[in-house]
Amino acid sequence: MTKTIGLICGSLRKDSYNRIVAQAFTEMDSSLQFRWIEIRELPLFNDDLDTDDGGPEPVRVYRSAIRQVDGVLIVSPEYNSGIPGVLKNALDWASTPPKTAALLRKPVGVVGATPGGKGTAFSQQQIRQTLDAIQAHVLPFQKVLISQVREKIDADRGVLTDEKTRTYLQRYLQHFVHWIDHIPVLD
Question: pLDDT tens digits for 62-93?
């Protein structure tokens, strides 16, 4: 059966390095389907808006998109040594209502790219902490921290050009698909 992987980019920038990295996943395995799960239209999280009917339309669409995929890959930058606000907002919307949250027990992988030298380590730590609180199944042990990303992409064409990085991403994707198939179920 074909797996469908959702892609969430933690940056809203038009020519986002992380969107370019996420796009590279779509070219790595023709047996997989990929769907972009957009976060741009989500309102700021407000529990008053999280009503019994599922809340605002962009929230309902977002939650539904997460539920329709087998797993989610989050590809995100690091802002000021932490998680981008827009991504934290999106994760908060995917965490409610607690017993039926869209990311509850959903397999999730986390990747990040930055022009700096530390490769989004702090951001990924915070993303993982939030996903743990949501009780998502985060791929353990495997980390892809892409530093110096400007040297690894062709920004004009919007493509990842560094073969070593592509190899790491391909391996990560294989581990992630295996994780989807073999997640330990705890009830």
Answer: 999 999 999 999 999 999 999 999 999 999 99
Which tokens go with 66? 């997460």
Sequence-ordered alpha helix ranges (H) in the chain: 17-25, 57-67, 85-93, 121-134, 163-182
Return contacts of 53-56, CB within 8 angstroms, 24+ apart.
55/93
Is the torsion defined by CA of 45, 46, 49, 54 positive or negative?
A: positive
Give the SS3 label for residue 130: helix
Q: Find how far residue 116's CA is from the centre of its chain.
A: 20
> Which residues are CB-contacts of 126 (< 8 A; sequence separation ≥ 6)?
82, 83, 88
Q: Which fold has domain 3-182?
A: Rossmann fold (3.40.50)
Q: What's the pTM?
A: 0.96
Q: Chain centroid to CA 31: how far?
A: 20
Task: Look at strands 153-154 and 159-160 and give their pairing.
Answer: antiparallel
DSSP of 40-92:
TTPPPP-GGG--TT-SSHHHHHHHHHHHTSSEEEEE---BTTB--HHHHHHHH
**Residues 132-149: tens digit of each pLDDT:** 999 999 999 888 999 999
Question: According to the model, what pLDDT value does residue 98 have?
Answer: 87
